[in-house]
Amino acid sequence: MLWTANTIMRKFSSSSVYYQNKLKLALIGQSLFGQEVYTNLRKQGHKVVGVFTVPDKEGKADPLALVAEKDGTPVFKFPRWRLKGKPIPEVVEAYKAVGAELNVMPFCSQFIPMNVIDFPKNGSIIYHPSILPRHRGASAINWTLIEGDKKAGFSIFWADDGLDTGPILLQKECPVEANDTVDTLYNRFLYPEGVKAMVEAVQLIADGKAPKIPQPEEGASYEGIQKKSNAKVNMAQPAEAIHNWIRGHDKVPGAWVLIDGK
Hints:
- By secondary structure, this protein is an alpha/beta fold.
- Helices cover 34% and strands 16% of the residues.
- It has one domain (24-226): 3-Layer(aba) Sandwich (Rossmann fold), CATH 3.40.50.
- The protein has nine helices and nine strands.
- The strands form two sheets. The protein has a seven-stranded mixed beta sheet. It has a two-stranded antiparallel ribbon with strand order 4-5.
């Protein structure tokens, strides 16, 4: 093949642009989902300048912390970011020192202060396992099934000071099958496609192509957190409602009912 100066210049230029369209990221989150997002973002050439995750539990590090520590990525395990409703200064300063251009929050159980959310020049993006504005809050997958929704999905949105109310960056959906549980829905679609979408969202931001679509208020819902204490089955309902209630709690927190005192 004959290589000309123009050919070489074109290849050099395109690869330079590709290289430049990468971001310095702070990953705030936990779990295997957070670990997969972290690993795939690094594979795409983005630089994770800090991982902020939960403290070790019974001497065991979170999966995200494990892989980040192995890579030599700075890992911070703050038990909390706020005290008495106010940001903890030394925690915020440690966060700011890593110099992130974007916060990526794939699965975050902690309350992150707004001065951290808004600090990077590109703000913060969050993964949420519902088609927002429907099922805002912590038990979104549960309520998708409990309510008998015909479709499920996830949203990646720009964080603001509300509860899952920020502008939408992207959304994807799938049909809900008759015998889906929280686990099957998560493992079949919400987890694998969610990881891919988080990587896609970061690249859209890096390329300056990420939309910010305001959430409509029509169809918005927040049903609250499901736990063992409120997972009791009401047997005075149609069979389909009982079916949806049970699968919407399977396997966490688990639905239950008393029959003959047992």
